[in-house]
């Protein structure tokens, strides 16, 4: 459990954690945008154990700003709050987070020989590149790294989001 917590908070990555500069066309503004405001959910299971999505992803201390994709709490809810109505992807969120999202490494959760990464979108197996998943209102994305590969339960705790 302690190792999972350490990965959740620090998470090894080759990517640099953004400091307020634009990332993949996503800006970091002094306040949250209001023209486009939706919420998606992300969960990652590392060999059956939950890998937390940290609070304040997309809220860099050095930049003192909010990326249009960010988290407030460690519950996996991604807030998309932009001054522009446009499409945003899971890959953009991972780049803002500064974590990898690949076939063998998802935010530091790595496959072993013979293992795979499974992705579910709204409870259905997704076979495309997870970086291209378009974030939509109440979209539920679950990423399973290594076995077990059982279909995860749906996220239902939207609490008026």
Here the CATH topology equals Ferric Hydroxamate Uptake Protein, Chain A, domain 1
In the predicted model, the low-confidence regions spanning at least 5 consecutive residues are 1-14
Q: What structural class do the secondary elements suggest?
A: mainly beta
CATH class: Mainly Beta
Percent helix:
under 10%
Radius of gyration using CA atoms only: 15 Å
Examine the secondary-structure arrangement and name the CATH architecture. Beta Complex
Secondary structure layout:
Elements (H helix, E strand, L loop, with lengths): L1 H8 L18 E2 L6 E11 L2 E3 L14 E2 L1 E2 L6 E6 L7 H8 L7 E2 L2 E2 L6 E5 L2 E3 L13 E6 L16
Parallel strand pairs: 2-11
Antiparallel strand pairs: 1-4, 2-3, 2-6, 5-6, 7-8, 9-10, 9-11
Keywords for this entry:
161 residues; 7-stranded mixed β-sheet; two-stranded antiparallel ribbon; mainly beta; disordered N terminus; 2 helices; globular
Please, could you describe this protein's structure?
By secondary structure, this protein is mainly beta. It has one domain: Ferric Hydroxamate Uptake Protein, Chain A, domain 1 (Beta Complex). The chain is 10% helix and 27% strand. It is built from two helices and eleven strands. Strands 2, 3, 5, 6, 9, 10 and 11 form a seven-stranded mixed beta sheet that branches. Strands 1-4 form a two-stranded antiparallel ribbon. The protein has a two-stranded antiparallel sheet with strand order 7-8. Strand 7 and strand 8 (109-110) form a beta hairpin. It is globular. The protein starts with a helix and ends in a 16-residue tail after the last strand. 32% of the residues are buried. Residues 1-14 have low confidence and may be disordered.
């Amino acid at each position: 459990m302690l190792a999972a917590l350490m990965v959740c908070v620090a998470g090894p990555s080759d990517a640099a954690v953004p400091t307020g500069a634009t990332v993949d066309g996503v800006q970091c503004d002094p306040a949250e945008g209001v023209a486009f405001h939706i919420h998606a959910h992300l969960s990652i299971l590392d060999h059956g154990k939950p890998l937390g999505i940290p609070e304040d992803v997309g809220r860099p201390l050095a930049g003192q700003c909010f990326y249009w994709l960010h988290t407030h709490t460690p519950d996996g809810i991604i807030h998309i709050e932009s001054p522009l109505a446009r499409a945003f992807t899971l890959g953009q969120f991972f780049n803002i987070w500064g974590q990898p999202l690949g076939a063998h490494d998802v935010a530091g959760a790595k496959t072993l020989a013979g293992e795979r990464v499974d992705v579910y979108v709204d409870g259905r197996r997704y076979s495309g590149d997870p970086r291209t998943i378009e974030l939509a209102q109440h979209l539920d994305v679950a990423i399973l790294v290594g076995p077990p590969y059982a279909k995860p339960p749906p996220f239902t705790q939207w609490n008026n989001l």
